[in-house]
Amino acid sequence: MLNAVERKIEQFIAELNDENSSNLYKQIPHGKRLRAKLILLVSNSAKFAIETSAVVEMIHAASLLHDDVIDNAFIRRNKPSINAIYGDKSAIMLGDILYSKGFYELNNINVEVSKVISNAVVQLSLGEQNDVIMAKEFNSNRDNYIKMIYQKTASLIEASAEAGAILANEDREIYKTYGKNIGIAFQMIDDILDITSSADTLGKPAMHDFKEGKTTLPYIYLYEKLDDSDKFELISFHAKDLNNDELNWLLDKFKEHNIIEFCKNEAKELVVEASKLMLKEGNEALLKIAKDMIDRDF
Amino acid sequence: MLNAVERKIEQFIAELNDENSSNLYKQIPHGKRLRAKLILLVSNSAKFAIETSAVVEMIHAASLLHDDVIDNAFIRRNKPSINAIYGDKSAIMLGDILYSKGFYELNNINVEVSKVISNAVVQLSLGEQNDVIMAKEFNSNRDNYIKMIYQKTASLIEASAEAGAILANEDREIYKTYGKNIGIAFQMIDDILDITSSADTLGKPAMHDFKEGKTTLPYIYLYEKLDDSDKFELISFHAKDLNNDELNWLLDKFKEHNIIEFCKNEAKELVVEASKLMLKEGNEALLKIAKDMIDRDF
After folding, report:
1. Where are the domains of chain A?
2. pTM, two decimal places
3. In Å, how far is A113's CA from the nearest CA of chain B?
4. CB B121 to CB A103 under 8 A?
5. What class, spelled out in words, does domain A112-298 have in CATH?
6. What share of chain B is helix, strand, coil (3-state, %, to 5)?
7. Mean pLDDT per segment of 10 residues, for chain A of length 298 residues?
8. Would an 8 Å CB–CB cutoff place A161 in contact with chain B?
């Protein structure tokens, strides 16, 4: 079914009848298509599941194109990003084209699905903005972090699961909660991997987030554990290019206070909550997606 | 009724529940609200006319935010643009927020209106891309220019008139044609004003387009009239910061070949076509909008 989604995206792009957009789109490497998988699995491939999946993946691609411009990110999935190769302007414009074509196609599906997906895009746009604003200062507020990653990452994953449920006439709330939980866990794990992975396995420099000003969950929890003098030290490292001694200080402190384990457990708890819902529904495939998320690269 | 549109936009922005977006939005100067006027006048203020107008003006504002980033434009309506004050990233993100909120609200209106508006956003996104691509070389092809300004500017004006007709159960094709004609004329006139106005009346440097690589209609027609040696001279001026002698050469050639008059007449013809349709419909207000367009600043 994922192949059918790829063909549908290609069809939507071809309908633009615009050579430049087609050429640029071909150069975006596919991700894992998590959102499409959720829609297909939750909806049990009901009518419009392929179209909805294609739209959501186009919208997701659009959001990544704009994110990479905003984050000055030149690597995406181990390849140079579109903004790295063709400049920011090309990435902005291709993002706008994919967004608008996606929104247009929602009109041919179902108004409830369209509301859920477009509301998620509002949330992810707000989340991207809040991510940037929050990066200006060290953030020690866990709730603000959770709200921001919900908006930036979980909202479209949540919407994908809910849209699948709408298409299949299943209980929207159950799948929405499932999607929200694995979506928040997904971003938490991503943020942990920024600290635990080397540049090679993730395809981006390790501990890049904090240098960019992003106070992710491990930093928030570390801050809570440190004494006042060390708190001051941690804040002084915010949004800075750290030398080896400083990096090692950070890694030692993470270890001393068992922060990474603690954060992993928090992500796992969310996935367990999501899994319980799928156990109850007897949906093995969605259980497996949740399980694979925890196992990812740790 | 335009006041009601402003209030509706403010409501939509307030619903985002996001302080930063509200603050930024307040700093965008309003334009003439041409698109809202068209929707209100064509629909005779039918049900959803206010909501549709608000959405279209939010989408228009979003497109200008992104255009100003893409064109490196620091002046918009005689004021510093959002990208000039807060940087490109803020303008991109606010644009995404306004776009997505606009698309979300279309779901609460009418699926036909939603299709027409979102298709126009696809077109204007493609048009912006083509504008940038075409600016890389001197363009002597009138059809490519007309297609690009149709996409970039006329598509949303056309869609506004058509959406108004849908809301009021009027003949869609008539108002669509009216909107397309005045939309193309609007951009032609804008492009002429870039040559005929001083920086003071338009709020941007005169003859800025050609310096940016944009071969607008007057340059295309001038090219057609010039002998081979002067053609070569004209092309050598493309996308260059011209000195006074070169600028005067250009202005002399425009005058010698009566180019500006010729272009104005072409724009007028489109407006006359649009006016004939409104004469037939007996719609005085839309006749006046067309007339005012021709009179604009010439």
Report:
1. 1-30+49-109, 112-298
2. 0.95
3. 10
4. yes
5. mainly alpha
6. 75, 0, 20
7. 96 97 93 95 95 98 96 87 93 98 97 98 98 97 98 98 98 98 97 82 68 97 98 97 92 96 96 95 93 74
8. no
